[in-house]
Amino acid sequence: MEFAKLLPVAELLNLPRKLSQLTAAITLLVGSAWLGMAHASSTVELGTGKVSVDNKSSRALSNGTRAALEQLLVKITGQQDISDYQTVDAIRRNANRYLRAYRFTEEQGELFLVAEFDRELIETELVKQGLPIWGSRRPDALLWLAIEDADGERRIVDDGNQSELARMTRRQAETRGVPLALPLMDLDDTLTINGYDVWGLFPEQLADAARRYNVDYVLAARLYPNRTREIVYREPERPVSSRFIPEPFNVPALRLNEFGEVILPLPAEIDAIEMSWVEKESASGPVFTQEEFSTVAARAKKGRYSLDYLYLAANQGAYQIAHDTLIGDEPEALLTTFINDYANYLGQNFSILPTNGDAAQTIEISVGNLSSLAGVVAVQNYLKNLSVTDKVMLVKQQGMVSTFHLNLLGTEQDLRSVLSLDSQLQPLTDAFGQPLQGMHYFWSQ
User: Fold this and answer.
1) Which residues contact 181 (CB under 8 A, 6 or more apart)?
2) Residue 140 DSSP code
3) CA-based angle 312:317:323, to the nearest 5?
4) Among 30, 33, 100, 334, whose Cα sits 20 to 30 Å from the Cα of 278?
5) For 374-431, how does the pLDDT look when each residue is reduced to its tens digit (9 = 90+)?
6) In total, how many domains does the chain have?
7) Are residues 237 and 92 in the same domain?
8) Is 3 a member of any domain?
9) How many Å apart are CA 198 and CA 183, to the nearest integer?
10) Longest Cα pair distance anywhere in the chain, in angstroms?
11) Which of 128, 157, 178 is at the close of a domain?
12) Are 277 and 231 within 8 A, CB to CB?
């Protein structure tokens, strides 16, 4: 990417020391700057790929380099299926062209290749191919994860958990380039949320308990084995049909056959008796209806585990974005799919689809609170490192307000979305809290 140079230093040093009327007006507005649009975000590493390898041979290095580059392409574009595009074939075939350094590392007895690539060169090639680019500033998220084991015990996976599932969750989030944290489950957390809230996936409680973490998205999931337990008849509260009255304390148990179907040892007249799922202990969980039991039995046929999940936009009053159920035989695979689904959602919403040269959009943005040359340089460097900008030029300086001319790779809305992920540039509002027309921001650092 190309960037214009700053104005001559001598010209900047001659800036007036006193604020102009425009500067004073903007300074007045700073007190009422609208902070609500700023999201919580973190910077992720977009130049390194990390893949598992069998050994340190030259063949393992060659194959691992291509795999690491494919991993990096998914992270940079935010598109899990980016390798399916024929336009990236040339990039994959010439993986060594983008490789800058590599090393081998061993973790938990597993050998990894860590490959460092030229990110700028890769992004330039992606722009030429018209493929999406996702910047390094990405929304923070908190994951409430509840797991049920084979004995029916449930626990919340906290930040200090070092189980294989917890490590895999962190590793997959890093692989996809999505900042993801687990709760501390300290005294503050236990006072605001409990296991029933997490297991029930109650949006309001999850969002309220996540406020202390200052995240933009709240994720929640419950992982459990699909068991086919013993079920029994029980007398309903309504009167039993007079055609058939079971003997008290002699209610036979029902079981499932190999196809998940209920085996009925009693005559058809028993249809007046209600059937429900009963846990080993009544206090251990709710009693399920026959319809719910059938659903669980059907899940057991498809896979040994289920993962129910949802994610919320934390800054929109626990607004629910998505929820679904995944079924499979391996818990690790279900969690990987869950994180991939979330990363795909973010990539679709925050990645920039570059426009061609003729359709490229230009825009001017004014930034206040720049009292020194160092501040002006910092803002220009900040703007030119955004994924949506192509060229950045300082065109005007008046008091503490700098105006920059930007050539965009995407649209103005793309620029606003990228800026909303960070609190360094905050939009200005009028006395009534309404955003000013145009692109007017306040530099907070």
Assistant:
1) 140, 141, 142, 143, 159, 213, 215
2) -
3) 25
4) 334
5) 999 999 998 988 888 888 999 999 999 999 999 988 888 888 888 888 778 888 888 8
6) 4
7) no
8) no
9) 12
10) 102
11) 128
12) yes
Name the phi and psi angles at 350, rounded to 5: -120, -10
Is 98 inside any structural domain?
yes
Residue 369 lies in a domain: yes
Q: Each residue of 152-176: b (16+ CB within 10 Å) or e?
A: eebebbeeebeeebbebbbebbbbb
- What is the model's pLDDT at position 320? 76
Same domain flag for 199 and 308? yes
Structure-token pair, residue 117: 């690539």
Return d(Cα 310, Cα 316) in angstroms, integer: 15
98-118: pLDDT as tens digits: 999 999 999 989 999 999 999
Pairing between β-strand 389-398 and β-strand 401-408 as defined by DSSP bridges: antiparallel
Paired sense of beta strands 137-139 and 141-148, if any = unpaired
Lowest-confidence region among 109-123, 185-199, 243-257: 243-257
Alpha helix ranges (H) inside 241-362: 290-302, 331-350
What are the φ/ψ torsions at residue 296 (nearest 5 degrees)? -65, -40
Strand bridging mode 231-233 / 275-276: antiparallel
Backbone phi and psi for residue 190, each to the nearest 5 degrees, phi listed first: -65, -20
Q: Per this entry, what is the length of the chain?
A: 445
Residues 24 and 144 in one domain: no
Q: Which residue range(s) make up the domain with 396?
A: 9-41+354-443
174 φ, ψ (degrees, to nearest 5):
-65, -40
For residue 119, tell me if it sits in a domain: yes
